[in-house]
Amino acid sequence: MTDSARSTAADGPRVELRGAEATMLATLYGRALDARSPDPILGDMLSAETLDKINFDPTRTGLRPGDHYSVAMRAEFLDGWTREFLARHRTATVLHLGCGLDTRVWRVNPGPGVSWYDIDLPDVIELRRTLFGDRAGSTMIASSVTDPAWLAEVPRDRPTLVVAEGLVYYLTETDGRALLRRLVETFSSGQLIFDGFSQLGIRMQRLNGAVHKAQATLHWGIDWPTELETIHWRLRCTDAVGVFAASDFSVLSARYRVLATLGKNLPALANMARYYRLEF
């Protein structure tokens, strides 16, 4: 962060969060670092500009040198699936669950036929409104994603894409399965896209710097796509892509190339983190 950016941030709202909510600062910081790097992966300059507006200590995010690569790659991958859905459905609804301070709606830039909803807890939405303001075609809903009441605010008569980046493993399995079942039963057709950890990934959460620093807890581990298909008879998992197989790590540092090679070739690590796409 530049001196001028530090000055701007010092005058902005001070952000003090704990638990799962606090991890949104780590992802914002990671996207900002990527945007300011010589060879950005995501190139999300709005995240970099937003980071300059708030007053917080980036050392408290728990991100280690180079961790911003994984943050940017995850966002880029799920952005790609989002664009694919919207290319097939010019008129659609997008539900961005646990949106935090993610700038996905600006990165994807959906067309006029898309109704976009950013859903998160009230204090997160309040901060989001302060930093981003309103955007045509998108609506913010202040609610826990597990509260069924917010669904009454969303149209049900069009194909629906549900995006849940960095969310499902913070839910208990009971709450997570109930949420996915409720979404499938509410909307006539669509897709669910999200990232998930296996049970091994959940057990190794103390090694996750951002989770540890935020004093958050991961709960729901998914070992096999078939576990998700048992939630509702209409759910079909079309893609379960290992994180280490999803991106080109050759452009990264030697440390991350070694990690990616191990992740691709050791079954336990290969399945520890995945991107899921389900149709209903």
From TrEMBL:
Keyword GTP-binding: no
Keywords: Methyltransferase, Transferase
Recorded superkingdom: Bacteria
GO MF entry, a single one: methyltransferase activity
InterPro entries: Ppm1/Ppm2/Tcmp (IPR007213), SAM-dependent_MTases_sf (IPR029063), TcmP-like (IPR016874)
Any one Gene Ontology BP term: methylation
PANTHER family associated with the record: S-ADENOSYL-L-METHIONINE-DEPENDENT METHYLTRANSFERASE YKTD-RELATED, S-ADENOSYL-L-METHIONINE-DEPENDENT METHYLTRANSFERASES SUPERFAMILY PROTEIN
Protein name: O-methyltransferase involved in polyketide biosynthesis
